[in-house]
Write a structure and sequence with these properties.
Layout lengths: L5 E4 L2 E4 L5 E6 L4 E7 L3 H20 L2 H17 L1 H12 L3 H25 L3 E4 L2 E7 L2 E5 L5 H15 L2 E5 L5 H13 L7 E3 L4 H10 L5 E5 L2 H13 L3 E5 L5 E4 L5 H13 L11 E5 L3 H13 L13 H16 L3 E6 L11 E8 L4 H4 L6 E7 L2 H8 L8 E4 L3 H8 L8 E2 L17 E2 L4 H6 L2 E7 L1
Parallel strand pairs: 7-8, 7-10, 8-9, 10-11, 12-13, 12-17, 13-16, 15-16, 17-18
Antiparallel strand pairs: 1-2, 3-4, 5-6, 6-20, 11-19, 14-15
Helix pairs in contact: 1-7, 2-4, 2-5, 2-6, 3-4, 3-6, 4-5, 9-10
Bound molecules: nicotinamide-adenine-dinucleotide.
Length: 464
């Protein structure tokens, strides 16, 4: 894999201030595939200055021209889609078909959606004797995780650019090659120098310097709740805007009237995709006591079909592997019953975990409360709808969920009582224009579509 040895700042690849590098490892075979520079506060400072310098001209660029640049960005992503998918497979371990369809196809669609929104959004409106303008917030510091390397970048950069903001991106240390490819694409799309900048580096060094930089007007972070809390506190102290997309422990609620086989099958698939490394994954399956045994059988049979290797990739790194195995062992210690998978390594090499299903999980168990971020489903029994709702709402998180019932109206009635940001009704499919984000400790703010755009805007009223 080709890697740059510098940072993309002010429209060019510049040498990093320091000498340190980060090794990029392929989680399939544990081999080092590249090294990228480990940025320091000095690199972050240069990048923020470049973004500030570019802000007046970019924020004054008519939205239609910003839209044209986003269209070019989308087109250049399309032109390099095979290379992007191969890079994501190499640094994340995503199976090729999933890397193409989801990791690459989805962010391309989202980049396109922001080209359209930049052109069509009403940045100006009349309210009585006022003209109200939606103006860009300013310089955005974007800090992204490794689980959907390009999607997480596009989710922040595309709406920020559409709004007229300039950006400094600090991507996850595990997946910096995708971020470097994105910077190449931004260059090819002829974004003006300084509108998009990239600093690779470690979270506690480069990420922290970006979150704390006084030249950053808005910090948009996706990752763990622990780091999100720190970033929120830092931003709060500086009276700076912040958007946080954090963890989840989403519930897939199967009401008694539902098509059980379908609900269980889709529910298991939802967790196995991306090897369980999805913040919105339905990692808790809630089933009525009368259908519990049948659901457990269906789920264990479904999980057994997800063979590691081509279908289910590895976890991103050795630390995540140890963490997920630790949770599986904890589940056993706390009295849950493994009905598929388990903590043993399925292959000799690579950071693989066998798709695992736990039965006899009670709501207070660690595996029912904490985000595991691996291919692990916990099946929890409920006795009636109020019990199901209490369990569904009984974690600190509230990012996503599913509800299944014989008819949509019944499922909707339940979904409206859930403390969560998104619910799929009877397997409703992902909508890249629908607002995505959390209730409770799953985050602050929304990404995607018009709601994602307005995160990067601030309002000014002129009275006549
Ligand atoms: P993380 O929160 O440590 O990392 C996310 C991003 O934040 C990375 O770019 C990282 O470099 C940066 N970062 C880390 N510490 C920082 C700091 N002090 N200041 C500023 N930036 C910092 O997440 P992780 O360690 O990669 O994953 C741990 C857990 O987080 C996972 O097991 C999972 O539960 C959760 N997670 C959630 C999502 C999500 O989409 N919500 C994504 C990835 C991970």
């Amino acid at each position: 894999m080709k890697a740059h040895d510098g940072m993309y700042i002010g429209g060019e690849w510049r040498s990093a201030a320091g000498q340190d590098t980060i090794a990029v490892v392929n989680p399939v075979d544990e081999q080092v595939i590249a090294h990228v520079p480990a940025g320091t506060a000095e690199d972050v400072d240069s990048a923020v200055h470049a973004a500030r310098a570019a802000l007046p001209a970019w924020s004054a660029t008519p939205p239609a021209e910003r839209a044209a640049k986003l269209t070019a960005l989308r087109d250049h992503l399309v032109a390099r889609k095979d290379e992007i998918a191969a890079t994501i497979s190499a640094e994340l371990g995503a199976p090729p078909a999933f890397a193409q369809a989801v990791h690459t196809g989805l962010p391309i669609a989202i980049a396109g959606s922001y080209a359209e929104l930049a052109a069509s959004y009403a940045f100006e409106e009349k309210i009585g004797n006022s003209t109200v303008y939606q103006e860009p917030v300013g310089v955005v510091g974007a800090i992204t995780p490794w689980n959907y390397p390009l999607h997480q970048i596009v989710n922040k950069v595309a709406p920020a650019l559409a709004a007229g903001c300039t950006v400094v991106l600090k991507p996850a240390e595990d997946t910096p090659l995708t971020a470097q490819l994105f910077a190449e694409v931004a260059h090819e799309a002829r974004l003006p120098a300084g509108v998009f900048n990239l600093v690779t580096g470690l979270g506690p060094v480069a990420g922290r310097a970006l979150a704390e930089h006084e030249g950053v007007d808005l910090v948009s972070f996706t990752g763990s709740t622990a780091v999100g809390k720190t970033i929120g506190a830092t931003a709060g102290a500086a009276v700076k805007r912040v958007a946080l997309e954090l963890g989840g422990k989403s519930a897939n609620v199967i009401l008694p009237s539902a098509d059980l086989a379908k609900a269980v099958g889709v529910g298991v698939a939802n967790v196995m995709g991306n090897s369980g490394q999805t913040c919105s994954a339905w990692t808790r399956m809630l089933v009525h006591a009368d259908q519990y045994d049948e659901a457990v059988e269906l789920a264990s049979a479904a999980a057994a079909k997800y063979t590691v290797g081509d279908r289910v990739g590895p976890l991103v790194n050795a630390k995540q592997l140890a963490r997920v195995r630790g949770y599986i062992e904890k589940g056993v210690q706390e009295g849950a019953r493994i009905v598929a998978g388990g903590p043993e390594a399925p292959l000799e090499r690579g950071y693989y975990v066998t798709p695992t299903v736990f039965a006899d999980v009670t709501p207070e168990m660690t595996i029912a409360q904490e985000e595991i971020f691996g291919p692990v489903v916990s099946i929890i029994k409920y006795v009636d709808e109020d019990d199901a709702l209490r369990i569904a709402n009984g974690t600190v998180y509230g990012l996503a969920g599913g509800v299944w019932a014989a008819d949509d109206a019944e499922a909707v009635a339940f979904a409206r009582r859930m403390d969560t940001g998104q619910v799929d009704i009877n397997g409703g499919r992902f909508n890249p224009l629908a607002p995505f984000g959390g209730y409770k400790q799953s985050g602050v703010g929304r990404e995607l579509g018009v709601h994602g755009l307005t995160e990067y805007l601030q309002t000014k009223s002129l009275q006549f």
